[in-house]
Amino acid sequence: MEKFLHEICFAGLCKEVAKEEIKGSTDLQAATREEGQADYNIPSALKQVINDSEWYKTLVETMAQGMIASDLNHIIVFVNPALCEMFGYVKEEMLGEDILKFVVEEDREKVIRQTERRYEEKNSSQYEITMRTKLGSSLPVLITGTPIIGHSGKTIGTYAIITDITDRKIAEKEVRDKNAELQDLYNNLLELYEQLGVIISETTRIHGEILLFTSQDCVYCAPAERVLQEVLASYGGKITYRKVDIDEEPDLAEKHDIMSLPTIVIGEDKITSVPDVYRLHSMLFSALVPEEKFRRTRQELDNLIKHSPIAIMTINDEGILTGINPTAELLVGDQRKNVIGKNVFEEEIGKPNPTPETMLKLYKRGLKGEKITIDRLYIKDLDFEKPEPFSILSFKIVPMTDKEGQIAEILVLAEDVTEKALQEEKLARSHRKLEELNEKLVQINKERANFVEITTKGLISPLRSSRELIDQILSGRLGRLGDETIGIMEYLRSNLDDVSKKLMDIFDFSMMEVQGFALKFKVHNVKELVSEALQSVGSTVIDKGFIVFLEIPDDLEVKCDKDQIVKVLNNLISNGIKFTEKDCTIQISAEEWSKDMLKISVKDNGIGIAEEDLDRVFDQYYKVDPNSDGSGLGLTVVKSIVEAHKGKIWAESEGYNKGSTFSFTLPKGDKKLKPE
Prior knowledge:
The protein is an alpha+beta fold.
C-alpha cells in the first residue's frame, strides 16, 4: 500500500507536468483548425496511453534537464537520471550528500546566499554557478531554484532545475573575443592612419606622376575622379594629379597600355574602373618617401584589411562606396569591381536597393557624425533551420573627419554573428520553458502536500478507532470472552498494529518529503528518552521474554526534539524485537562520541545483516528480508530525523545470525544548535 501511495503521488506530479506539453499541442491544433470544422476527439487508444501514470513518469524521468531536491540543511533527497548523467554519478552516490559538495568552493557562499534569500522571500530565483563532475571537471550551470512550501505555509526545502550552459558560455566567450578583436582592429586602423599621417607630413616629393585617363563619353570617370580627389585631399593638398583625355593624348595612353576607362596611373601601378580607396591609398603610399618605412606600414595595413574576418567598408559623404574588403563582398552579395563607386542610397533602374533599409538609416546617422555600436543588428528574415550568413550582425560605424573637422567618410565594421545569436535565442527559449515548468512544479508540490495529508490521515483514523474497540473487548467491559475468541482478537489487534505502523511510516516519510522536520530543540536526559520509547513496546518485550539492558550514565543529556528522537528509538528497538527470536537480548547504551556529540546504540542478537546490505538498509523501500511485513520506510525516516539534528547514523553486523547494532549521534546538551 505504501508503495502505491508513493507511486501515485509521483505519477500525479509527472502527469501535471506532461499536461502542459499536451495542452500546448492541443492549442496548436485548435489554432490551425479551419472555421466550422468539427472538434477533434483524441482516439481512445491514444487517450488511454496518455492517461496512464507510468507514461507520465517515464516522461519526467527522461526529461533532458537535471532536477534536484534538498532539505533545509542542503542535504540532497532527490535527483533525476538526467542530473546523474550530467555529473557522472549514480543516484546513490548523490542522495544524502550535502549539495555544496558538488559546487566549486568559490561559488558555495553564493549558493547559500541565494538559498537563504529564496527561503526568506518564498520566491523562485535563477543564477549561474560552476559545479564539479565526478571526474573533477568544471561544469557551468544555470540554477532555477524554488522553495518547497509545506501545507502549513513554512519553507521545508528546495528543488531546482539544473541546466548545462557550457555551450552558452563558449558562445559568450567567442562573442567577447570577437568584440575585442573588432576593437583591436579599429584601434589598429586608427594607429596605422596616424603612422601614415606622420609619413605624409615628412613627404616632399612623389615618385612619378599621378594620371587619370578618361574621355568625354566615359560613364564611370566622374565617380573615379571624385574618389581620387577625396583621397588626395587627405594629404593636405601636397599631392596633385593630371587628367588625361585619351582622344587628345593617344600616345601617352598607349605608353601606359590603357585598355579601359577610367584608369588611374601612379608610378608603375594602375587601377582600372572606379578605384578601391584602400588600394588607392596603398599605391599613393608606395610613391611617398621614406620608402622603407612605408613598405612596412603598407604591408601591415593590407594584411589587416584583406584577411580580417570582419567586413570593412568606407562610404564618403556623398554616399559613394569607396572601399570594401573580401569579407564585405559576402555582406553586400557582390564582387568589389561591381560595387565600388556606386552610391549606396541610390537604386539601379529596374532593381531594388540591395542594402537593407535598416543599414541605410544607420549610414545616414553616421554621415551626420554619430558613432554607432549595435551588438545585434537583424537585417534579414531568419530561417532557424538554415539561416543565411550575415542575417545578424555585430555592427559599428565610425565617422572619419578631414583636416577641417568635416565628416569626409564613415568606416563601417560588421561581423557575422548569426550562429551565435541563434544559439543565444535557443538558450533563452529553453530558460523561459524551464521557468514555466518551475511554476507548475510549485503548484503541483502544494497539491501533493494536501493529497498526502488527507489520504494518510483518512486511513490512520479508522484504524486507531478499531484498535481502541478491540482493547475494550479484550478488557472484558463488553462481556466475558472465551479463550478462542481472545486469541482471535489478539491476532486482529496485532495485525492492526502492524498496519498502523506501516501507515505511520508512510505518513512520516511523505511528510518528511513534503514538509521536512520543524524541530523544537530542548535539552533532555538520554535515559528518560529511552524509557519513554520502551513504554510503547513494553508489552511486546514481556510477551516474547526479551531482556533489555541499559548502559546509560544518569547525567548524559542531548539537545534534540523529544518526539522525533523517541520515534527513532522506538523504531530501532521495534526492529530489534522483530528480527530476533525468543530468549534474546537488546542492549541500549550511550556514551560521549566527540567534543560536541553523544553516541546512542541499540544492539540485538538477532538475524544480523549481510555486509553488502549495511549501507542500503536506510534506502527507501529496501528490506533486508524481502518477505518481511515492514514498509521499507522506517529506517529512511530515522536517518532523516538524525541528520536533521546534525547527527549521523550507521549499522554494524558481523553477518547472518550474529546480531546487529544501530548507532547514531546527537549534539550534547550544552552544544549551541539553532532550531531548523
